[in-house]
Amino acid sequence: MATSKWKSAILHTVLIVGFLLSIFPFYWLMVMATRTTGEIYSYPPKLWFGTQLFHNIERVISTIDFFGAFANSLFVAVTVTLLVLFFDSLAGVTFAKYDFPGKKWLFILLLATMMAPAQLSLVPSFVIMAKFGWVGTFKALIIPGMVNAFGIFWIRQYAEESIPPELMEAGRIDGCGFFRIYWNIMLPILRPALSFLGAFTFIGVWNDYLWPLIILNNEQKFTLQVALSSLNGIYVTDYSMVIAGTLLAVLPLIILFLFISRQFISDIAAGAVKS
């Protein structure tokens, strides 16, 4: 009993230390957002909150079109996430549960695209967008991102193990077509995988900086990450204002993570009970 208590105490201590280490960068971000630039550079560093948060936020809002950029990022991220969930889930369950000519080689080609660095496709992608006349528009952010190889691979792996063939056969016997089986049988089972994929996609699109910076040439179309980058001065950077803007950009992701994590855990528990 004593040995078991010691093991439990050590485990909980390690978990607490790991939690504190993982949350400290966000805590430090909040602290710096409440300080002036001079206080950020002070030594020893000030580890408690200051009084400049609202002043720094006001300067961010007055310097850039924060709410316009926020709305642009939200629109692009939500649209891309919904399209990814739809198309990747369709392709994933097709690879997992249906046979068709060339299935094996198509899946190998799909995996091969995941191994190529995304930076290699920047120039070809820009040329294609220019040919279509989409440079400076949201189409150039949404259309290329509405399907990704990782999402198809993730849904395929999850669907292969979680969707019983008997359920699909029962749907066919009842006269259901592909989309009816997909919507009424597959999607409810895929909810945990879709929750993760949705959060993963939204965070990736929300934080994307390089591609929007290259493709958007209209300040009114800037996403939040591109708009925040304009806070950096050529010679001098007001880090208190930059960090306050970064904090505002991170808060939606934290809210999303808290919501999705609860949903993800509840879906996993529900699936375990059903099985």
Describe this structure in words.
The protein has a domain at 65-230: MetI-like fold. 75% of the residues lie in helices and 0% in strands. It has 14 helices and no strands. The chain has helices at 2-33, 37-40, 53-63, 66-97, 103-115, 122-132, 139-142, 149-162, 165-173, 178-189, 191-207, 210-215, 224-229, 239-274. The two termini are 34 Å apart. The mean pLDDT is 85. This is Carbohydrate ABC transporter permease. Keywords: Cell membrane, Membrane, Transmembrane, Transmembrane helix, Transport. The chain crosses the membrane at residues 9-29, 74-93, 105-128, 134-155, 181-206, 239-260. InterPro entries: MetI-like (IPR000515), MetI-like_sf (IPR035906).
Q: Could you outline the blueprint of secondary structure elements for this entry?
A:
Blueprint: H1 2-33, H2 37-40, H3 53-63, H4 66-97, H5 103-115, H6 122-132, H7 139-142, H8 149-162, H9 165-173, H10 178-189, H11 191-207, H12 210-215, H13 224-229, H14 239-274
Helix pairs in contact: 1-14, 3-14, 4-8, 4-11, 9-10, 11-14
Percent helix among the residues? over 70%
Instruction: Report the CATH superfamily of the domain at 65-230.
Output: MetI-like
Beta-strand level of the residues, as a percent range?
under 5%
- Order of secondary-structure elements: HHHHHHHHHHHHHH
Q: Give the terminus-to-terminus CA distance.
A: 34 Å
CATH class of the domain at 65-230, named Mainly Alpha
As residue ranges, the low-confidence spans are none
Task: Briefly note the CATH topology name of the domain at 65-230.
Answer: MetI-like fold
CATH architecture of the domain at 65-230: Orthogonal Bundle
Backbone structural class: mainly alpha
Q: What is the gyration radius calculated from CA atoms?
A: 23 Å
- The tally of strands reads 0
Biggest sheet features: none
Summarize model confidence as the mean pLDDT: 85
Helix count equals: 14
- Shape descriptor reads globular
